[in-house]
Design goal:
137 residues; alpha+beta; 39% helix; 28% strand; extended
Amino acid sequence: MSSEKLIRFSITVPEDLLSEFEAEYYAENRPNRSEAVRSLMREYISGERWRCVDGQVCATVTIIYDHHVPELTRSLTSVQHDFGDVIICATHVHLSHSSCLECVITKGKSQDIQKFIEALRKVRGIKSLNVNVTVEI
């Protein structure tokens, strides 16, 4: 942690929510409640800030799809070629006879990553599309 001035504040939460949170957090051998809240705040800021940032962001886009859907594979390949300037790499995994998982790692301007995600959302046959974006804060 930096040498920034620390501010003490209080929050009110249901007791069972706090108990469940602490059980999960401390199970990972985390140091204390304050560090837990700081970590969550950083994660939230990073998750929200990327939409407004002019600079570089990194995103992992995870897609699950049925490869038997006509034209799906070709559409995914086409979209990835259209956004080759932001794609660092892609990994393809066979989950079952019909389902595939693809993980695409990207780095680029926020608006370019957003356009890539929007283009993927238009592809018919995608079962699931999850995005994890991070920005240096």
